[in-house]
Amino acid sequence: MGDSPNPVRIYGLDISPEATKITKNNFSKINAQDVKLFEADAIDWLKDTSEKIDLLYIDIVTMQDGKSEYLDVLDAAYPMMNEGSLVIAHDINEEKFKKDLIPFVEKVLNHTKFKSIINLNFDSYGLSISIKR
């Protein structure tokens, strides 16, 4: 941001019009620059973009698939992620989603693709943070 030679761009994706509206309102309150929010399916959007990704935050849930699409989002984003990019996943400790998240966790534990993973247990939901190789 500011005078940085590498501009910071923030992209927010949510399939819900209501959630997108709330997010736009929240970003307007902090006068954030270069924020683009889209009402879109994250997987489809990621497959169609060539934007580089330094930080990927995943927090999705569907009625049919629970949290099982975390792996699909990660796989769609992976080609655009730079070495050292962070992947942050919410609800990693939520008991009802443990089975859904197994493929995602196995992927981020793959040391040929990610060099570390940490689980932050600051609440019952938790966040995992992984670093791309």
Describe this entry's structure for a reader:
The chain is an alpha/beta fold and 133 residues long. 29% of the residues lie in helices and 29% in strands. It has 4 helices and 6 strands. The strands form 2 sheets. Strands 3-4-6-5 form a 4-stranded mixed β-sheet, with helices on one face. A two-stranded parallel sheet has the order 1-2. The two termini are 25 Å apart. The model has no long low-confidence stretch (mean pLDDT 90).
Task: Write a brief caption for the model.
This protein has a four-stranded mixed beta sheet, covered by helices on one side. Strands 1-2 form a two-stranded parallel ribbon. The mean pLDDT is 90. Helix 2 (42-48) packs parallel to helix 3 (70-77) and helix 3 runs parallel beside helix 4.
Helix content: 25-40%
Mean pLDDT: 90
Radius of gyration: 15 Å
Note poorly predicted spans.
none
Strand content: 25-35%
Describe the largest sheet: 4 strands, mixed
**Alpha carbon gap, first and last residue:** 25 Å
- Output the strand order for the largest sheet: 3-4-6-5
Please tell me what the overall shape is.
Answer: globular
Number of strands: 6
Task: Give the SSE layout.
Layout: E1 10-14, H1 17-29, E2 35-39, H2 42-48, E3 53-58, H3 70-77, E4 81-90, H4 98-108, E5 114-120, E6 127-132
Parallel strand pairs: 1-2, 3-4
Antiparallel strand pairs: 4-6, 5-6
Helix pairs in contact: 2-3, 3-4
